[in-house]
Write a structure and sequence with these properties.
The structure holds two protein chains of two kinds. Chain A is mainly β. Chain A contains no helices and eleven strands. Chain A is 0% helix and 50% strand. In chain A, β5 and β6 form a beta hairpin. In chain B, 39% of the residues are buried. The N and C termini of chain B lie far apart (40 Å). Chain B is built from no helices and twelve strands. The chains are: A mainly beta, B mainly beta. Chains A and B meet through β5 and β10 of A and β5 and β9 of B.
Chain lengths: 107, 127
């Protein structure tokens, strides 16, 4: 199976900061990568798919990039509603796997 | 607007079978464009994909759970279901159902990301 490793595990930031989260795959997954946001007690919400495509209704301050084995999620200007946990997920084949998550907390 | 709603027992005894149902409203469960899947999240942990099914009834399973799980659907009720046999404390989790857009790669269709999620149902396994 393909292992997904996110870094950092926790990120402390302030409103207005530019935030970058990295996701690395144990083998090439082309661009078959999605990013999700999850708030406490809620289901994950899709932000980005195919590495860089913004899901409808998601604010444009979220962006994704990368291909192969290294990917990034960037929040251009962190807003109060963005404090949450973020997960990457690969879909290179039927067996999909998630990263362990990155918690974005208030600095 | 598509909505998914999980339902389940809440509490199940160890060694018994867990049965969960996802009811789909606002869209067709028979669409060729999607797979339908189950994902779970153990307390304080990350997300694990469990199983998916497509419009033909073809099923796909996480290898680590394949021997104990079965996914199926009932198009007449617009529902799909998950059964987990011989549950243990390790199966305690929030279980989510989701719609997964299909993508074509080569000559095959594959499930992709989880575009629409249910709110989740909490399952606890008691001894």
């Amino acid at each position: 199976d393909i292992q997904m490793t996110q870094s950092p595990s926790t990120l402390s930031a302030s409103v207005g900061d530019r935030v970058t989260i990295t996701c690395r795959a144990s083998q090439s997954i082309s661009g078959w990568l999605a990013w999700y946001q999850q708030k406490s007690g809620k289901a994950p919400k899709l932000l980005i798919y195919e590495a860089s495509s913004l899901e409808s209704g998601v604010p444009s301050r979220f962006s994704g990039s990368g291909s192969g084995t290294e990917f990034t999620l960037t929040i251009s200007s962190l807003q109060p509603d963005d404090f949450a946990t973020y997960y990457c997920q690969q879909y290179n084949g039927y067996f999909r796997t998630f990263g362990q998550g990155t918690k974005v907390e208030v600095k | 607007q598509l909505q998914l709603q999980e339902s389940g027992p809440g509490l199940v005894k160890a060694s018994e079978t867990l049965s969960l149902t996802c009811t789909v409203s606002g869209g067709s469960i028979s669409s060729k464009s999607y797979f339908w899947g189950w994902i779970r999240q153990s307390p304080g942990k990350g997300l694990d994909w469990i199983a998916s099914i497509d419009y033909t009834g073809s099923t796909y399973y996480n290898p680590s759970l394949k021997s104990r799980v079965t996914i199926s659907f009932d198009t007449s009720k617009s529902q799909f279901s998950l059964k987990v046999n011989s549950v243990t404390a390790a199966d305690t989790a929030v279980y989510y159902c989701a719609r997964e857009p299909a993508y074509i790669w080569g000559n095959s269709r594959y499930p992709s990301h989880m575009g629409v999620w249910g709110k989740g149902t909490t399952v606890a396994v008691s001894s």
